[in-house]
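[09:14] KT: can someone run the structure on this one? pasting the chain below
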Amino acid sequence: MILFPAIDLKDGACVRLEKGAMESATVFNPDPAAQAKTFAKQGFAWLHVVDLNGAFAGKAVNGAAAEAILAAIDIPVQLGGGIRDHAAIDGWIGRGVARVILGTAAVRDPDLVRIAARNHPGRIAVGIDARAGKVAVDGWADTTEMDVIDLARRFEDAGVAAIIYTDIDRDGVLAGLNFPATLRLAGAVSVPVIASGGLASLADILRLLEPDCAGLEGAIAGRALYDGRLDPLEALRLIEAAAING
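[09:31] RB: done, structure tokens below
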């Protein structure tokens, strides 16, 4: 079980949104690279980074901040937000991103995902963001009629490394992860699933360590880490103890 601390980038700063609304952004650290260093020092094994402006623009907007993060830490980074063509994918992997997340592109250009997964084995993830079970795109601005599981199954045999499933209505509001929907998705595909949206406390961590969550690759934590509701050292201790006890 991997706990991914999140850095969401807006206008060069580390922020958190509520339910994906850009106007709800709260700045938690004006220096994303310093925040990344803090997470690395706390013992996290991965970092999850999203270019929020890029997700709306369809191209990198916070590229300089993302590059500063990559230069500041040694732990692997997965990056999403506005990555919608092969040049962007290849460019970020060339800069040291361990895993590129494709969200809107997975809906609008599924062949891009398949080709990228073939060209970069183990380094492409699909981001599926949903409202009421329907997939949202373009920085969550537009909700489609596509079902989450239907989209996930498109990439069952594509060789993607993971599916990152975000419940938008829970994101940033500390409502707890949507375990029923996440587990339903994980049970429908063989691709590892990462839970996102709403992780609120150690109670969520303990729930993630229950046997029925064993198939999940991990979960993403954002606001709960920033406002102190989730003790990172205790969360990582629980995960490590569960791994040891098997």
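[09:33] KT: thanks! The mean pLDDT is 93.
[09:34] RB: yep, looked fine to me
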